[in-house]
Amino acid sequence: MVKEIYLSVQGESSHAGLLCSFVRLTGCHLRCTYCDSEFAFRGGTRMKNAEVVEQVKALRAPLVEVTGGEPLLQPGVYPLMEALLAEGLTVLLETSGAIDVRLVPPAVHKIVDMKTPSSGECDRNDFGNFTSMNANDELKFVIGSRADYDWARALITEHRLLDKPFGLLFSTVFGKLHPRELSEWIIEDRLPVRFQLQLHKYVWDPAARGV
């Protein structure tokens, strides 16, 4: 089920600022406290992968992100990603980190969200994903408090994530933690992660859809 397909500017990851098509799939098994896409939990339109690909191509952006909800709940997402790759597109996948990503095509840029304690879903993280991620990928920590930051920093040390091939992203829960605070913690600890903002929430209304 497809909730929406639209064109915007990528707001996160190392691809931030680039023109990007978004394919948002319906459904999620998590209920994070800071979720900004609850509208995608249900509804949507049943579409064939070929229809999705044609709509994406019509938007004329070389970058496309498959997101949700949690897109990996739908088995059809794997052939969809293959079909988008076959069109020569750069494909991003935004996923919760609570589902094994080993079946995702290696050419897809996986953005895997590690759920911090303030999300309320921290115990759902699948740490096995660390061995299924490659140099195309990024591990994202959404930080809502100092406790979240300390948890993330400890996890990086415990699992030797700085030795992994993928990148590490730190961002704030929008409206809950000031970006300056997170920036200062990173600077103080000399933590070699990529600090990021959700650019789309600063450009448009944070509650807006299709941006």
From TrEMBL:
Binding site for Mg(2+): S37
UniProt: substrate binding residues: V9, Q10, G11, R24, T67
Entry cofactors: S-adenosyl-L-methionine; Mg(2+); [4Fe-4S] cluster
Top-rank EC class of the record's enzyme: lyase
Biological-process GO terms, alphabetical: tRNA queuosine(34) biosynthetic process
Organism domain of life: Bacteria
Cofactor note: Binds 1 S-adenosyl-L-methionine per subunit.
Keyword terms, alphabetized: 4Fe-4S, Iron, Iron-sulfur, Lyase, Magnesium, Metal-binding, Queuosine biosynthesis, S-adenosyl-L-methionine
Positions bound to S-adenosyl-L-methionine: Y34, C35, D36, G69
E.C. number(s) listed in UniProt: 4.3.99.3
Pathway of action: Purine metabolism; 7-cyano-7-deazaguanine biosynthesis
UniProt: [4Fe-4S] cluster binding residues: C28, C32, C35
Annotated catalysed reactions: 6-carboxy-5,6,7,8-tetrahydropterin + H(+) = 7-carboxy-7-carbaguanine + NH4(+)
GO MF term set: 4 iron, 4 sulfur cluster binding; carbon-nitrogen lyase activity; magnesium ion binding; S-adenosyl-L-methionine binding
Keyword check for Lyase: yes
Occurrences of domain Radical SAM core (ranges): 15-211
One Pfam family it belongs to: Radical_SAM
UniProt subunit comment: Homodimer.
Record-stated family: Belongs to the radical SAM superfamily. 7-carboxy-7-deazaguanine synthase family.
General function of this protein: Catalyzes the complex heterocyclic radical-mediated conversion of 6-carboxy-5,6,7,8-tetrahydropterin (CPH4) to 7-carboxy-7-deazaguanine (CDG), a step common to the biosynthetic pathways of all 7-deazapurine-containing compounds.
Name used for this protein in its record: 7-carboxy-7-deazaguanine synthase
Organism: Hyalangium minutum
Lineage summary: Bacteria, Pseudomonadati, Myxococcota, Myxococcia, Myxococcales
